[in-house]
Amino acid sequence: MGGSPRLKVLIFIMICISVFLGLDFVEGRFIVEKSSISIVSPYSMHAKYDASIGNFGVPDYGGSLVGTVVYPSKGAFGCSAFEGDKPFKSKTPRPNILLVDRGECYFALKVWNGQQAGAAAVLVADTIDENLITMDSPEESSDADGYIEKIGIPSALIEQSFGETLKVALKKGEEVVIKMDWTESMPHPDERVEYELWTNSNDECGIRCDEQMNFIKNFKGHAQILEKGGYTMFTPHYITWYCPQAFIASSQCKSQCINHGRYCAPDPEQDFGEGYEGKDVVFENLRQLCVHRVANESQNSWVWWDFVTDFHIRCSMKKNRYSKECAEEVMKSLDLPVEKIKKCMGDPEADVENAVLKTEQDLQVGKGSRGDVTILPTMVINDVQYRGKLERTAVLKAICAGFKETSEPAICLSGDLETNECLERNGGCWHDPKSNVTACKVFKGMNALLLFADNLFVRIKGDGYTSCEAVGPGRCTVNNGGCWSETKDRTTFSACSEALITGCKCPYGFKGDGHKCEDVDECKEGTVCQCDGCKCKNTWGGYDCKCKGDKLYIMEHDTCIERQSSKLGGFLTFAVIAVVLGAGIAGYIFYKYRLRSYMDTEIMAIMSQYMPLDNNHQNQVVQHETEPLRDASSV
């Protein structure tokens, strides 16, 4: 067969899917909401119609929307931004529902342009008479990047005949009011909601893989609260297909399938010559199924959410860590029984059916109202496929719509969520028991396993799961900064120093690489205590040196000095002290005399201004007694 490796992979995948599903790509089974749209006004048009909810945006499960239909005079396909500032935003309390035609661009782009123009919902009218399909978002497109996740309004595909009915009435100038009803879209047979997620462990399949992994990480807190409380029962599923008998011996089949072609998945890179193979994905899918089965037997099935989240972060294909060894590291960190899970998985090389994967293939074919699973990821709630954005709050709303009235749990009645995953096994994150510093952090409304941790003084970096390293100021307070430390005789030495930003260095008196340090025997090395007649004794982290006689040892100079000074030295010391003391006393007396003299002079100068000390003193006193006092304002 000629052509590029990528083309060969795509052709092979198409053959396998068509053989497995037993249907072609035009007539897939899609989910249609029967009688979900009704014309409210004018009364003469009153009727109910089917619709197929778009697989993006946020349908109001459990609720309804009544609005006035508008049809654009220009740009009926809705493939370009509409002119004006929100031209379809209603000027009345009743919102507007935009009607556009199918064709020329992605469904999601039509809805996005409608949302930008102020519409509360978008109906896409089919242009030919055919069975309704599910409007899906584009698989890969740079144009799609940026707006799909921002779509927050509901949308639906309607039949050509219904679209024409609406257009004719609008052309006559009639006001057409319709009701989009999702109140019965989600069945609620009992007080427990059963839901499942069809997903994939491959993290290199573009937008869809990113979407499902972001959902799993963000929804984990909700899922575990609901399941621990007994409100829901969750089951994960994974799509596989089998290789046709004629292709079993081919290199394509051998690289993409396990159990001799019975269970296959596409090559992650769509190139048989590089990277991971499809059978790696199948085997990891099987492992994640068995994690759920084994955990469910132990009555803690919610651990599946922890495993998948941690595996995606620690063992991604992007990091070249997508392997059995990495998966088993994650299982051990979550206290999962590795051997039990291995037994559940069986032998991928055996030429026999695998019970777990065979069940998955049987469930993939739709029964009753559920329909075939043809889109990844797919959420099924109470045996009905969920349609809309795979996003935390939107899915929670749909699950809550599956409870009987007044039986929904408190989490459905609150707009916020607070959990603490760090209480159990420290959230699977790294933890230093000595300093009680952890890489698990909790935020109001969500939980996150961060790849760093901060306390008041220390910053830590690392993978957040198996290892962390303290950096910056205060790093020595956390596990000694990863450096050597040891205590003997109530004395502790550490190779971590605040003077070093990173790295370790053995302290004085020790040798090594900083991660392992040994005491240096300075006495044996003969580098100290070399003075005449001295005796050297090695100690933990240092040494003692004793001089002969009554001399004193000075370590800095490795020498001995006399403890008592000579008589001459004593006399000179006394003389110096006496001179200094005498000078101080003389200076004090001189200072005191000069200060007193200065103060007397100042006092007399001040007093002479008010009480002159001459012979006229008596005359002035008499004058003051006989003459009238001057007014205070006179000169």
Spatial order of the strands forming the largest sheet: 1-2-6-5-4-3-7
Mean pLDDT: 79
Query: What is the total domain count?
Result: 4
Spans of at least 5 consecutive residues with low confidence: 1-28, 443-457, 610-635
Kindly identify the CATH topology of the largest domain: Glutaredoxin
Separation, N- and C-terminal Cα atoms? 125 Å
CATH class of the largest domain: Alpha Beta
Radius of gyration: 43 Å
Assembly context of the chains = single chain
Q: What does it look like?
A:
The chain has about 625 residues and is an alpha+beta fold. It folds into four domains: about 5-25 and about 185-415, Glutaredoxin (3-Layer(aba) Sandwich); about 35-180, Glucose Oxidase, domain 1; about 420-470, no CATH class; about 485-520, no CATH class. About 30% of the residues lie in helices and about 20% in strands. The protein is built from 15 helices and 28 strands. The strands form ten sheets. A seven-stranded mixed beta barrel has the order 1-2-6-5-4-3-7. It has a four-stranded mixed sheet with strand order 9-8-12-13. A hairpin with a 4-residue loop joins strand 27 (about 550-555) and strand 28 (about 560).
Give the arrangement of secondary structure elements.
Layout: H1 5-21, E1 33-41, E2 48-53, E3 64-70, E4 96-101, H2 107-116, E5 121-125, E6 155-158, H3 160-171, E7 177-181, E8 193-199, H4 207-228, E9 232-238, H5 251-256, E10 257-258, E11 263-264, H6 278-297, H7 303-314, H8 324-333, H9 338-345, H10 355-364, E12 378-381, E13 384-385, H11 392-400, H12 410-413, E14 431-432, E15 437-438, E16 440-443, E17 446-449, E18 452-454, E19 459-462, E20 468-471, E21 485-488, E22 491-494, E23 510-512, E24 517-519, H13 522-525, E25 535-539, E26 542-546, E27 551-554, E28 559-562, H14 567-608, H15 617-626
Parallel strand pairs: 3-4, 4-5, 5-6, 8-9
Antiparallel strand pairs: 1-2, 1-7, 2-6, 3-7, 8-12, 10-11, 12-13, 14-15, 16-17, 18-19, 19-20, 21-22, 23-24, 25-26, 27-28
Helix pairs in contact: 4-7, 6-7, 6-9, 7-8
